């Protein structure tokens, strides 16, 4: 699974580094890490991944130890390793609950604001919401007949693939395609012109 690293070095931050933060960076990369230049593009590419952009990692004894984009499907085991190395439970907290005026949280606030931690996993409310999201995504996937045109030879083709409909819309007319072979025998690239649901 690729993570799309943004080039250009580290980003300015209100967060200061220490030896604990460096342990987190060893596993997750620099604080302020970006998964992708576009949040919507990343969500479309990995719709079934649990992602928190600009997330924060806290522990009870060390407070805030890292922040940046987290994809739990990719980063979960890395966070567990950080927890094991620090001998501390690591709490995942969303951006607005752990940055700027909220960088220093007391123990009860950390427990209250976290979405997931290395001991209990998801909070029940968050887990329920996420399962409903996954269920909706699966209901919005359907096999589809795609019409394509090669940009090199100009020929038209039909291919079967998967259409992932926009989960934020109630109609079946808009979405993104998956699993469609867009390469022509002439080595040209075939553009998807339209789709027809079965």
Describe the protein's architecture and organization:
This protein is α+β, with helices and mostly antiparallel strands. It folds into two domains: 19-135, no CATH class; 140-197, no CATH class. Helices cover 30% and strands 29% of the residues. It contains six helices and nine strands. The strands form two sheets. It has a five-stranded antiparallel β-sheet. Strands 8-7-6-9 form a four-stranded antiparallel β-sheet. Strand 1 and strand 2 (63-71) form a beta hairpin. Helix 1 (19-28) packs antiparallel against helix 3 (72-86). The longest helix has 16 residues, at 124-139.
Highlighted features:
four-stranded antiparallel β-sheet, five-stranded antiparallel β-sheet, alpha+beta, 198 residues
Describe the structure concisely.
The chain is an alpha+beta fold and 198 residues long. It is built from six helices and nine strands, in the order ααββαβααββαββββ.
Helical residue percent? 25-40%
What's the count of strands?
9
Separation of the first and last Cα atoms: 30 Å
Structural class: alpha+beta
Strand content: 25-35%
DSSP summary: helix tally: 6
The secondary-structure element order is HHEEHEHHEEHEEEE
Shape: elongated
Mean pLDDT: 79
Low-confidence stretches are 1-8, 169-174
Described by strand count, sense and barrel closure, the largest sheet is:
5 strands, antiparallel
Widest β-sheet, arrangement of strands:
2-1-3-4-5
Radius of gyration, in Å, reads 21 Å
Q: What is the total number of structural domains?
A: 2
Question: What's the helix and strand layout?
Answer:
Blueprint: H1 19-28, H2 39-45, E1 51-59, E2 63-71, H3 72-86, E3 91-93, H4 95-98, H5 107-113, E4 116-117, E5 121-122, H6 124-139, E6 141-150, E7 156-165, E8 175-178, E9 190-197
Helix pairs in contact: 1-3
